[in-house]
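Consider this record:
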Amino acid sequence: MNFKFDINDQFFHLEFVEPVNLLSSSVLNGGFRKASHFFNTKVDANFLGERTEFEKPAVTLANIAEANKWRGEAVGMMTAALMASFRRIKLEEQGVWIEVFLTSGISNARRAGDKADYRLMNDDCEKVGTINMIILTNARLSQNSMIECIMMATEAKSACLQDLNVKSPVSGKIATGTGTDSCAIASGSGPKVEYCGKHVLFGELLAKTVYQALKNSLEI
């Protein structure tokens, strides 16, 4: 997998030389995609509720991609975290590498099962991420393996927050994430990997990479 990377105060951006198979919970072009670009952009948080009207997040992200003339499918996330929180970690074993690109902030830390802020099923909420990450690997993954990677990355994130004793302000219990996290996994065309769980080396490497990236990001 070959790509170009750039970062500034507003966003970090990956441009893939050849489109990659990418699975994400992204606001712009989430789900399974053949992506040429991935980006994670900072937006202003609305802590004091000064703003009551917002452009749709997907529209904002699409406009950013257009303004930068990124051609091909672009997958985009939003975050309220500063780009100063960005961390990039890579681990490799037996010819397989995993690299994580991550930004973080925990101002809206939550524990799974906490009482939700929005009480209607289809309430429009401000979908702005705080712990956002993309995981790249040269391994060739099936779609079900990519889903397992998302699960493993989520567990690693929760383990890191537990070890750092991050609490949810809603329940006072250990947080498992924030209210608006996003995650993406991009598969390569190298060695085939079928299993990504806790019993296999790939899963171990994936969890260690995510854990270390998040720990480094939060300990600034």
User: Anything to note?
Assistant: The chain has three helices and twelve strands. Residues 3-218 form a domain with the L-amino peptidase D-ALA esterase/amidase fold (CATH 3.60.70).
